[in-house]
Design a protein that fits this description.
The chain is about 40% helix and about 15% strand. It has 9 helices and 6 strands. A 6-stranded parallel beta sheet has the order 3-4-2-1-5-6, with helices on both faces. Helix 5 links the parallel strand 3 and strand 4. Helix 2 packs parallel to helix 3 and helix 3 packs parallel to helix 5. The two termini are about 25 Å apart.
């Protein structure tokens, strides 16, 4: 049973398994990506209902540009079609995008900007799409900006780096979910997940439903987040009056 007073404020998801899901059904990989879009709609709605404030979805990595051209083209088409969906307005969800968007087709870039502007006033939750994104690219860009800004080495802190990342407008993820059975991070939010709780499941993304999301949240709620402290220290802090 989910504890409503302990909902992760920021959930990040690696939506893996679309292609394998389709292949096992004798379909083109793009069929799996299409099925995955419908899951995004359902999971977004459920996260809003639960009270999650930020949902970050790993949609297309910089490494994915090396995939077959027809699959990349199909994925770009899906990005456009999914942004036409009124799920953002229906659920009062703000849309943001992070990544090297300059590499995307012009029509996709334009649609991303329009969706961000159209949903800017929504307040229930922010859905962030990581598109043409990788953590190493993001950190490299942050370093370039810091150097270009002329900061002295001794003035650079962890906060300095965080402020120059794509994600500087939101808190770090409390929970990172990866579907599809793989046990790796795949260059995703490497700086931000330093103390995130990790949850891996074998379920392919097209089969990941509300019950699967609840299971991940329940796993998160069953853990003690210590952030480097001892168990006794955390328990003592939890007993202190607010």
């Amino acid at each position: 049973m989910i504890e409503t007073n302990n909902i992760p404020q920021h959930i990040a998801i690696i939506m893996d398994g679309n292609g394998r899901w389709a292949t096992e059904r004798g379909k083109e990989r793009s069929f799996g990506h299409q099925a995955g879009v419908e899951v995004v709609r359902r999971i977004t709605s459920e996260c809003v209902r639960l009270g999650v404030k930020y949902l970050t979805l790993y949609t297309f990595s910089t490494e994915n540009w090396s995939r077959p051209a027809d699959e990349v083209s199909a994925l770009m088409g899906l990005v456009l079609s999914s942004l036409e969906d009124e799920i953002f307005m229906k659920n009062n969800v703000r849309f943001r995008v992070i990544g090297d968007v300059k590499r995307l087709p012009d029509n996709v870039q334009q649609k991303l900007r329009e969706t961000e502007e159209h949903t800017a006033g929504n307040t229930a939750m922010t859905m962030v799409v990581a598109l043409s994104y990788s953590a190493r690219w993001e950190i490299t860009e942050a370093v370039r900006q810091i150097v270009a800004g002329g900061l002295r080495a001794e003035d650079i802190t962890e906060d300095t780096i965080s402020q120059h990342l794509c994600t500087n407008f939101m808190p770090d993820p409390d929970l990172l979910i990866r579907t599809g059975g793989e046990l790796r991070i795949s260059n995703y939010l490497l700086w931000q997940i330093a103390y995130s709780e990790l949850y891996f499941c074998d379920t392919y993304w097209p089969d990941f439903d509300e019950a699967a999301l609840h299971k991940a949240v329940e796993s998160y709620q069953g853990r003690q987040r210590r952030f480097g402290k001892t168990e006794a220290q955390v328990e003592k802090e939890n007993l202190l009056p607010l």
